[in-house]
């Protein structure tokens, strides 16, 4: 898991936010990756099925340790006969390249336009954006995340008909910078709008022009760490013409939130325009220089889960602090907050925990994470088509039926994400900056 605070944060979140112990058993073979045992998901109805939320989280965590090129091989080894969204989209892109046309079926266009930036999450979803944990089934679309109580609720559900079947019209304008909560729309069916950050939905199939196209700038003077008050678009396209055809550099900084999965990252892609389409092509030199500052969002949980999480993670070496903290929490009045900073023994980093008590009985908001997360990434590739960097991610604990807030993934409190994208090809030097900013700083 490529995180600044890798194992400890996930353990704490798991213990804090997981529901009752899942006692179901699995006939699947257990496999080992390094020193970690992973329970292989089964394949049912062309989708992955995880026995429990812990199995789901562990599998995703292992996927995050794989390179982009290793993901498909790993998934095929662990889930025979399964075709992921990532695999399906790459197959369709190759088909377009081979046929040199846009002659795709409506179903293929729907698959291609389902925008999931994180390749690990796209490796778990099937081509329809579906996977299962325990009895619950989840379906990802560009606008909504659907949560079904069981297979019967999923099979009997008929989504509202769209006025247009054109997948290119599925663009969803990002909603407000707040996370939405699940809404019950049918018996045993809930739906949550993909909001928070950029949401899950703003589609970017890679073959269409983005809203922002900038002329050549002085690439050398571009510095993503300057002018932090300035707002940049989250995606930009810059074009050039060489050898009678057009080329372009596409850059994007993303912060996607699907309620049950969220991630932050950036990417640069080089493309050439031939046969009426844009195709990913190798460039002489492509770079990505990026950084991000963020914190972790809240979870709404009862007191006993706070107690278990604190005692298990810090009880052995900070028992007095844990006992004092729990005492302060228990004596909170409604709408009061208490804060403690505890030292993580694995990473050596300080973790700030804020506990806010609601007016309703035994309901608390937990804000937990390092006091400040700052990460940067600089990469140069030669003879390459693209660079992609995922900074952080979070999965949900989904053991209980919705619409409980504790079942959602960590909502990243993004302060700023900036990325400098540059290209050198056929004598051209292109470059620009993309970014995302919070409406209000958190640090």
Unreliable parts: 1-36, 164-177, 201-211, 397-407, 439-443
Measured distance between first and last alpha carbons: 25 Å
CA gyration radius, whole angstroms = 22 Å
Q: Write down the domain tally.
A: 3
Overall spatial form = globular
Helix percent reads: 10-25%
Estimated share of beta-strand residues? 35-45%
* Major sheet description: 7 strands, mixed
Task: Give the averaged pLDDT, no decimals.
Answer: 76
Annotation, overall tally of beta strands? 22
User: What is the oligomer described by this structure?
Assistant: single chain
Number of helices: 9
Order the strands across the largest sheet as they lie in space: 3-4-5-6-7-9-8
Helix-strand category: alpha+beta
